[in-house]
Records
---
Amino acid sequence: MNITVRPSSRIRGRVELPGDKSISHRLAMLGAIANGKTVIRGFSGSADCAGTLSCLRQLGVGVESPGPGHVVIPGRGLGGLEASEHPLDAGNSGSTLRMLSGILAGQHFSTTISGDPSLRRRPMRRIIDPLSRMGAEIRAGRDNTPPLSIRGGDLQAIDYPMPVASAQVKSAILLAGLYASGTTRVVEPLASRDHTEIALRQFGVELQGSGRELLIRGGQQPRAQAAAVPGDLSSAAFLIAATLLLPNSETVFPGVGLNPRRRAVVDVLIEMGAAIDVIDEYPLHGELAGDLRVRSSDLRGGRLSGALIPQLIDEIPILAVLAPCTQEGIHIRDAAELRVKESNRIQSIVENLRAMGVAVEEYPDGMSIPGRQSLRGGLVDSHGDHRIAMAFSIAGLVAGGPTVIGGADCVSVSFPGFYDLLAGLTQA
Ligand code: S3P
């Protein structure tokens, strides 16, 4: 489906965000292997998280959803999942496939898990290596891509320095570590989001270490929880960017997740001169949430690289869209991981910026986008990637003419209702 976005004069309003996708996946998976009934409020309505719930149903978990954002999971206990008759379909979701593989590695049965064409191109060696070392038998497609066939078993703890900074890989290892005999140690090269660590502790699991090193003792039974999910800051980022770019604009985001390892996008934008106020900040089931107020701003721009990258990896598409409208441009390095996301995001961003008349230099691990450039309307392609579709929809709001987003329906992967919400907040 194509969507035409027309230039807009301003954006204003109070935004009810979808629940955080990353946190929703984790609460659902931990609920499934907990003892007792887990009740989740504010669960993400995204297609990705619906995919996690449907995989869990196939593994014998009687997931119910009594209303929007309300999910009830009768836990089966660590060893209570059942073999699925049919292969599991993780859809577009790397989080579902990689994190669930950690749990499947601990089951005494075989499971096949795959996904859509995008997911079937994504690298899985990063989980196959550690989970195989723990004792799971894993078969994969060509070049270690899905489908994965996982025969779980009696796992042994490992001591694992991770080659890539990835919260999904870290989470798969920690979840498998619950099933292993002994204490599993995992060390990340750079700190990535820590929602799994927070959720495990909420479910009563002891974890040692902090920062980039974590230790988990096997055999600990997670205990069911009543939990609430904050709003998704990665989804908010698109509307925050629109507010900064359009004149006379102001938006408020109540209850958005402000986990210190996820909020780098906010900190970086404030550093660049963005008028973003944290009106309130409060703990929410181990996470941090708060209310943000955002107003139109002139942005300086800057350089994004090194340890910052894993903490704003999902926000790079929208930061790249802001770049031509800044004074000094935005220069991104150390972000080669972007090439193995839902699309090759470096290529998708560069191609679409050029289609809108923006000069950009591409590097293997990033890009350089000079500032003080204007965007013209045109035809852009989502490449089936939800964050590319949303980022270039925001670009369309500030372009010189209408912008057609090819394949815009993929926004439902993380943000169903994005276009209706945008239409309600913006003015022609
Ligand atoms: C996620 C971690 C990130 C991110 C993805 C969600 C998560 O991936 O890009 O959208 O929920 O753990 P990596 O951990 O593989 O970098």
---
Amino acid sequence: MDCIFCDIIKKEAPSEIIYEDEDIIAFLDINPINYGHLLVLTKQHYDNFLTVPEDMLHKLISRVQFLAGIVKRATSADGFNTMSNNGVAAGQRIFHFHFHIIPRFENDFKFNLISKSYNENELKTISAKMKEFIEIYSGQLNG
Ligand code: 5GP
Ligand code: ZN
């Protein structure tokens, strides 16, 4: 399978690695939104958030928390975004699941997401549908 992030993990493609352990690696995004923009991922290839096994996800999110503190300190950022894109519609371009940590500075830019509002019927319809799926899938929840 062709995956640039797997190549980076195998050191067959160049990257500026900031952190790695047995399971997790973090390297600088080649086209940063701000300098210090970090990508954090499992060394095992999983294509999106929903396919990462839970124990691996716990380790990944723990490293994201640790590294967000490092990014903030190292860049003297005022804040940071942690985010992941899942699926083409959400802007995912590399299908090896990763979190972005993006250092942010006062008034650097705004995400131009346009918010909607609900009427009562729309609110209850989507709520009922979600609760129905929780009933169906809650057996998959651990702990
Ligand atoms: P996505 O859109 O999938 O959430 O994010 C993919 C990210 O990977 C982008 O921000 C892009 O700049 C970064 N990227 C793509 N190819 C490479 C690469 O070869 N090396 C590094 N370091 N980052 C990459
Ligand atoms: Zn991969």
